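Handout, section 4.2: multi-component inputs.
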Amino acid sequence: MKRHTLATVVAVLVGVAWVIPFLGVVMTAFRPSHDVLYGWWRPPFRFTAKNIAGAWHHSTASLAWGLKNSAQVAVLATIIPTFLASLMAYGLVRVRFPGRASLLMAIGLLLAIPQQMVAWPLFRLMHSLGLLNSLFGLALVHSAWALPWMVFFLRGYIETLPVELEEAAFIDGANRPQTFFLIVLPLMLPALASVVVLQFTWAWNDFFLALILIYEPKKMVITQQIPLLRGQYHVDWGLLSAGAFLATLPPLLIFAFFQRYFVRGLVGGAVK
Amino acid sequence: MWGFFFIGPGLVLILLFVLWPAAQTLALSFLNKDGFAGLRNFANLFGDKAIWDPARFLRREPPWGALLHNLVWVCLHLPITVALGLFLAVLFAKAPNWVSIFRSALFLGIVTPMIVGGVVIRYLFEGHSGIIPQILGALGVGKPWSSGWMAYPETALLGLIVGSTWLWTGFSMVLHSAGLSSIDPELFEAAQIDGASEWAQFKYITVPLLRPVTIVVAVLTLFWELKIFDIVYVATMGGPGRASTVLALEMYFAGFRALDPYKASAIATLITAVSVPLGYWFAARRVRR
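Output:
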């Protein structure tokens, strides 16, 4: 029993230590700037909503716009690839066609390509497609980048589904797409929940793609606005912390409510 | 015939927004404005002090160049996050259930946008208002450790690496935890009956059985380290005097500030050349399964 006491104490201390950096940002977001000048841990602890309001109504990087834009991009960038990846994963597992194995291998390889590898040509491509500075364009790019890991994750799940159900549907005269939409897709719901939760978080959290594809202040997503809140000559920590807090809130809430699916997706995508 | 119905739409997106631009970048890395340049862009990278400055590295005077900064990042961050995540997974498995509330704290680093992670890291090491320099100062440690880490070339990179360890360890812990819960508890019980110590059980049961998970964590961690960008961008912008710059940031500067697609492409290709062989091995393992 003694070793469990030790493990408990150390585990609690680690948890507390891990929260401290975040605690600093939350405290700074909700306290007057002059109170935290020499450390957010020093009293007096007075509350203010001024920083949040300031970030919300910021003249050049209003987080009210950023939150709306991020939500738009993240929703589109979740729905599109979830649907397409379900189709792809099913096709790769159940439909026989030449080159299937090497296609799967190629998709797996895509997981290793960093986004830097496409940055410059992608910028040019989006410009010529008229999709530069477009939230829809950004969501399309996110969708393409989400497909490989989604396909891998969903493929693993479909392989565990009993094929007999589909065979029964074929005997009753259903074709491939009917079988997929009516039989397989409903069975995939638990896996789709994981995919949706993870992809929404990742699309929301992305910075690099937005940085190169969106340039108009009113269209910027929230992660792009964070560096803009820093201030020109000195760092305005109150404003910056308020922005950081608001930007983190949506993914944090999603995680809080859907922790099970979040972890399952993370583990299934990586370990299996 | 139905193959295309299922695969086609997704494949078009991948070809258009991933493979086609990646192929262009690969091609651009072997070109310059006069035409074919062979390996000259890559040779230039190693002549560029912002990318590669081993002489200063040997004298231990930063900046050492982005490539060496990334390598240092890998050498410190990879073993620490992988081992610490494994250790914490075991630790939290031994603690009672109510401690899982504290375990959730480690998820913060996975859930938070990296750009916010960068803000938090910068704040952590700020001169007057940052908790780490203040604690070190109170312990009697001198400058620059007790002042703003991000303002000094000696400490900026290390501060970012420490901060990124704080962000990433949760990922390692989650995966190791999942692996741990799939180990048959009877193994540990049998070992206990045979009188195996806590350490012996860890060394001869936990570590070897978690090895496949550890390898996956290590590979994914390496991918993450090679393309690290957001936290550097927001915390230091590579400064001071490029002392904390990294490859992805230099690629961004070359492509979108200096408007030199050839240099930018060479840097991007360099990063990819390290990750893709690893990715091939990684994907092959999973496809075979």
